[in-house]
Design goal:
Blueprint (H helix, E strand, L loop, with lengths): L2 H14 L11 E3 L2 E4 L2 E5 L12 H14 L7 H5 L2 H14 L3 E5 L2 H12 L5 E5 L4 H10 L2 E5 L4 H10 L6 E6 L11 H10 L3 E5 L14 H4 L8 E5 L9 E5 L1 H10 L1 H4 L6 H14 L3 H20 L11 E7 L1 H13 L2 E2 L1 E3 L9 E6 L6 H23 L1
Parallel strand pairs: 3-12, 5-6, 5-7, 7-8, 8-9
Antiparallel strand pairs: 1-2, 2-3, 4-10, 9-10, 11-14, 13-14
Length: 394
């Protein structure tokens, strides 16, 4: 059978199971409103939590950097791609998360894969929450370390795993601080205490918390006072900070070690001057957005309340991420289409992004939503609830 035929059969299987994915091109973007295929939609499926991706100050910073430094770095940082704009970004990131140093990467995926591959090897044990992001999963796989996957947020199971792995050279515990598909968080104080008691290194991924939670958007590690007890902290710059890329923060020694051992840094072209400048500006602006952060979380609480009134099982939480569990992929796709028809874009999230049987609509709110936007969203979800009842009744 030819390559094309085999791949086509796999695609057909995905489509039958409601798991086929397609790209959706945005034709025009104006804050929380986008135009797609001639339709104006309220965008509630992105991660631009503070609405900074369209902020003209970031665009101006990027344009100035392009004029002064060009649009590309030209090589990896160890060849000739390093520049002062990247170091300025790293200083801003380290100061934000209250750690001595930071190292910039082209993406959060590169950061997690490279970090775990550099820290862990065949003699080590990596203990990972079962719902950690794919970049963490792939980093653990590529590290060749022994993997111990503990049930989501189950720190008793984690402690049993730490005891089981006591003979490993290194024990490395890795967890997101705000889980991107569920909007929930581990008990970070206890997590840090367990790692300290069992002589394990703690790696935290703050991708969805930075800019949104913690003092001045410094994240949940800072909020819970555990920043100084982590071996490494990963943050992304393409969500709340409105640009792209990521960083790993930690000690000066960690930074120097990664420069010498992190393959995704050594063998990747450095982030461009334009993205570095925009990300730095995003961090600087986000530090002063306490009022917007508070309003964002109030909007999320209000939406959760409205969804429960409509009969949805909306989990509690303190984040702009609100999942609506619908079970099977077909139900999630139907919900996405109905909301689209009501002028609201919420993405259906299906396996393998989430476990089997937990397909959902993932709502992610933004700080730049106005009362009319929130009312539009509420009406759309009320219509979804009514249609769901009709379907069950029918």
């Amino acid at each position: 059978m030819s390559l094309e035929r085999e791949l086509q059969l796999e695609l057909e299987t995905l489509e039958r199971n409601g798991l086929l994915r397609r790209l959706t091109q945005i034709d025009e973007r104006r804050g929380p409103r986008v135009r797609v295929e001639g339709c104006e939609l309220l965008l509630l499926c992105g991660n631009d939590y503070l609405g900074l991706a369209g902020d003209p100050r970031l665009a101006q910073a990027a344009a100035h950097a392009a004029r002064e430094h060009g649009t590309g770095s030209g090589s990896s940082r160890l060849i000739s791609g390093d520049c002062e704009l990247l170091r300025r970004l790293e200083r801003a990131a380290a100061e934000l998360v209250e750690l001595p140093e930071a190292l910039a990467f082209g993406s959060g995926y590169q950061a997690n894969v490279g970090l775990l591959g550099a820290l862990a090897g065949p003699e080590d044990a990596l203990l990972s929450d079962e719902l950690n992001h794919a970049s963490i999963i792939d980093g653990a796989r590529l590290s060749a370390a022994r993997k111990l996957i503990y049930p989501h947020l189950d720190l008793d199971a984690l402690e049993r795993g730490l005891i089981e792995a006591r003979t490993a050279r290194r024990r490395i515990v890795v967890s997101e601080t705000l889980f991107s598909m569920d909007g929930d968080s581990p008990d970070l104080s206890r997590l840090a205490e367990l790692c300290q008691r069992h002589d394990a290194w703690l790696v935290l991924d703050e991708a969805h918390a930075l800019g949104v939670l913690g003092p001045h958007g410094a994240g949940l590690a800072a909020e819970h006072g555990v920043s100084g007890r982590v071996a490494a902290l990963v943050g992304t710059l393409g969500k709340a900070f409105g640009s792209s890329g990521a960083f790993v923060a930690g000690s000066r020694v960690l930074r120097e070690f990664l420069i010498n051992r992190c393959r995704s840094l050594i063998f990747s072209t450095a982030p461009s001057p334009t993205t570095a400048a925009a990300a730095t500006m995003g961090i600087e602006i986000a530090l002063g957005m306490d009022a917007q952060r508070a309003a964002l979380l109030r909007s999320a609480d209000e939406l959760r309340h409205r969804l429960r009134e409509y009969g949805f099982d909306a989990p509690s939480g303190q984040s702009p991420i609100v999942p609506l569990l619908l079970g099977d992929p077909a139900a999630a796709l139907r919900g996405q289409r109905l909301l689209w028809d009501q002028g609201v874009w919420v993405q259906a999230i299906r396996p393998p992004t989430v476990p089997q049987g937990t397909s959902r609509l993932r709502i992610s709110l933004r700080a730049d939503l106005c009362p009319a936007d929130l009312e539009l969203a509420a009406r759309a979800f009320a219509q979804l609830a009514a249609q769901s009842v009709e379907r069950v009744g029918g």
